[in-house]
Amino acid sequence: MLEPTSRSGATMNVIGDDKSTPSQPCPTVRERCSAIPERWLQNVLERGLIMIDGIPVTDLDTRTLPGSEITIGG
User: Fold this and answer.
1) Segment Disordered: which positions (predicted)?
2) Residues 25, 63, 26, CA angle at the centre, nearest 5°?
3) What is the value of pTM for the model shown?
4) The architecture CATH gives domain 2-73
5) What is the Cα 36 distance to its own chain's centre?
6) Residues 7-62: pLDDT tens digits?
7) How much is the pLDDT for 3?
8) d(CA 25, CA 7)
């Protein structure tokens, strides 16, 4: 689910509804952001504007923990 954090749409949070279980691996940033076009996502990643719980992400295939917040700013 995408939740805009500003009216300009420049920053958004992707709130986890990943439903992962102990037998399943946690989803990646790419999987959790599947509603966002890949090209745009890659662009903001290259600019260093994706974070998981405030920690910068350098790879879209980084695993995320249940309940973690992905922040994308632009």
Assistant:
1) 1-29
2) 25
3) 0.67
4) Roll (3.10)
5) 9
6) 333 444 555 555 555 567 899 999 999 999 999 999 999 999 999 999 999 999 99
7) 44
8) 34
Per-residue tokens: 61: 């295939």
* Domain range annotation of the chain: 2-73
**Which residues have CB under 8 Å from 17's CB, separation 6+?**
1
Better pLDDT: 59 or 4: 59
